[in-house]
Design goal:
With 423 residues, the protein is α/β, with parallel strands linked by helices. It folds into 2 domains: 232 residues, 3-Deoxy-D-manno-octulosonic-acid transferase, N-terminal domain (Rossmann fold, 3-Layer(aba) Sandwich); 176 residues, 3-Layer(aba) Sandwich (Rossmann fold). It has 19 helices and 14 strands. The strands form 2 sheets. Strands 3-2-1-4-5-6-7 form a 7-stranded parallel β-sheet, sandwiched between helices. Helix 15 links the parallel strand 12 and strand 13. Helix 7 crosses helix 8, helix 12 crosses helix 17 and helix 17 crosses helix 18. The longest helix has 18 residues. It starts with a helix and ends with a helix. 40% of the residues are buried.
Length: 423
C-alpha cells in the first residue's frame, strides 16, 4: 500500500499549472453563483512580479482570517528578534489577504497569496521568495509545496498545529499518503498532546512532533482606564461585538434576568458603529445611555459602548460576557472569546463560532466558556453564572487555569527560529 501511495504522490507532483489555468475559470463560475470573489489566478500561479528580498527571508503562512489573526504577536516578535530578515506573509483566501494587508502592511516586507499546489508554480514561487525558513500555521498540508521546499533544503515547520475531531477520521483513511507529506516537514509543533498523538498516528516521525501550545492564547491585557461609575454595587453583563439581530437577543435575555437579579446592568457594544441608529431604535423604551457621553450605571440600566478601541478594556470589569457574532444570521463566525477570558471572565456564545472553533474547544473543555444552541440555553447559563456564586467562582478559576496552561507558544517558536537561523 505504501508503494501505491508513493506512486500516487509522484503522479500528483506532475500536476501542471496549465491544467489549473483551464480549471480555475470553471471554478470561478461556481464561486460567482455563491457570491464569492474569483480566484486570484496570477498570484496563486506565481505569475506576478516579486520584489527582490535577498537571502535572509522568513515566510509565514496563515490560510484565512483566524490563522492570520493568530500570527499577530508572533509577527511582531519576529521583527524584534530577527530585524535583519525580510518578512513575507502569505494567505490562502481573499478575506485572509485583506486582513493581512490591513494588519501587517507596515510590518511585512511582502504580502501575497500562497501558491496553488502545482509543482512548477510552487517552484517558481519559492525561487522568487527564496525563504530561509517557512512557518505554516495550523494544518496546511500541501504535498507539492512541502516536497519542493524539502528538495530546496528550506526548513519548513507547522506551527500551532492541530487536527480537528471532524478532520481526523478522514485523514486516517489516507494516512499512507499523509505519512509521505508529513515527513517532508522539518518540525511539527502542535497545540496539545492530543494533536501530537494524532500527527504521529498519521505517520509523522515522533522525533519532529512537539507540543508548543496555542499562539492564539498569547494576548495581553488592556489597562482598564475607563469608568462607568461605581460598579461595585452591580452585576454587569456585556454583549460584545453585536451584529444585526443580536441586540434584540441580548436585550430580551437581560430583561428576563433583571426580574430576578435587580442590580443587573447591561453594556451593548455594536461591532459596527455605523449601525448605532439601528441599535438606539431597538433600545427605545429602555433606560439607556452612551459611553461617549460618560453616562454611568447610577443613572442608566444599559449603556451603549459607542466608542472605538475600548471593548477589550471593558471586558476587564464585567461579570459575564456574551461574545456576539455567534447568533448572527449572516453567519459571521463569532469573535474572539479570549479578549474576555484573559481577565478570567466567563464567556457565553451562540452556535456560530467557526472562526474561533479551536479556541472554544479548549475553553469549553476546561469549563471556562459556554457555547449555547439557542436563546433559552443562553438565558439559562447566564442566570446560573449570575446567581450561583460557587459555579461562577469555579468558572472564573477555570479561565485563569486554562490561559496559564496555554502560555509559552510564542517563546517556543522564537527559540526554534533561533536554533534554525542562528546555529
Amino acid at each position: 500500500m505504501e508503494r501505491i501511495y508513493k506512486i500516487f504522490f509522484k503522479i500528483y507532483s506532475k500536476l501542471d499549472p496549465i491544467v489549473l489555468e483551464i480549471i480555475i475559470p470553471i471554478i470561478d463560475l461556481f464561486r460567482k453563483f455563491k457570491n464569492k470573489p474569483p480566484i486570484p489566478k496570477k498570484e496563486k500561479l506565481a505569475k506576478i512580479d516579486y520584489p527582490f528580498l535577498g537571502s535572509k527571508v522568513i515566510m509565514l503562512h496563515g490560510v484565512s482570517v483566524g490563522e492570520v489573526m493568530s500570527l499577530e504577536n508572533l509577527i511582531k516578535k519576529i521583527k524584534e528578534n530577527f530585524a535583519d530578515y525580510k518578512l513575507v506573509i502569505t494567505t490562502g483566501t481573499v478575506t485572509g489577504q485583506e486582513l493581512a494587508h490591513k494588519k501587517y502592511d507596515s510590518i511585512a516586507d511582502f504580502i501575497t497569496y500562497f501558491p496553488l499546489d502545482a509543482y512548477k508554480a510552487v517552484e517558481k514561487f519559492l525561487d522568487k521568495i527564496n525563504p530561509s525558513v517557512i512557518l505554516i500555521a495550523e494544518t496546511e498540508l500541501w504535498p507539492n509545496f512541502v516536497y519542493c521546499a524539502k528538495q530546496k533544503n528550506i526548513p519548513t515547520y507547522i506551527i500551532n498545529g492541530r487536527i480537528s475531531d471532524k478532520s481526523y477520521p478522514s485523514y486516517l483513511k489516507i494516512k499512507g499518503f499523509l505519512k509521505i507529506v508529513l515527513n517532508c516537514f522539518s518540525g511539527i509543533f502542535c497545540q496539545s498532546d492530543i494533536d501530537r498523538e494524532r500527527f504521529i498516528s498519521l505517520g509523522a516521525d515522533k522525533n519532529i512532533v512537539e507540543v508548543m501550545k496555542n499562539l492564539k492564547f498569547e494576548i495581553e491585557k488592556k489597562q482598564a482606564d475607563i469608568s462607568f461609575g461605581d460598579i461595585s454595587k452591580y452585576k454587569i453583563m456585556i454583549a460584545g461585538s453585536t451584529h444585526r439581530g443580536e441586540e434584540e437577543i441580548a436585550l430580551e435575555t437581560y430583561n428576563k434576568l433583571k426580574k430576578e437579579i435587580e442590580n443587573l446592568k447591561l453594556i451593548i457594544a455594536p461591532r459596527h458603529l455605523t449601525r448605532l441608529d439601528e441599535v438606539v431604535e431597538i433600545l427605545k423604551g429602555s433606560n439607556f445611555g452612551y459611553r461617549s457621553k460618560n453616562d454611568v450605571f447610577e443613572d442608566k440600566d444599559i449603556i451603549i459602548l459607542d466608542t472605538l478601541g475600548e471593548l477589550a478594556k471593558v471586558y476587564s470589569f464585567v461579570d459575564i460576557a456574551y461574545i456576539a457574532g455567534s447568533f448572527d444570521k449572516s453567519k459571521t463566525g463569532g469573535h474572539n472569546p479570549l479578549e474576555a477570558a484573559i481577565y478570567s471572565k466567563p464567556t457565553v456564545s451562540g452556535p456560530c463560532i467557526k472562526n474561533f472553533r479551536d479556541i472554544y474547544a479548549i475553553l469549553t473543555r476546561a469549563g471556562a466558556s459556554f457555547v449555547v444552541k439557542n436563546k433559552q440555553e443562553f438565558l439559562e447559563i447566564s442566570k446560573k453564572l449570575l446567581s450561583d456564586e460557587n459555579f461562577y467562582d469555579e468558572t472564573c478559576s477555570n479561565c485563569l487555569a486554562c490561559l496559564n496552561n496555554q502560555k509559552g507558544a510564542l517563546d517556543f517558536v522564537i527559540n526554534r527560529l533561533n536554533e534554525c537561523l542562528k546555529p
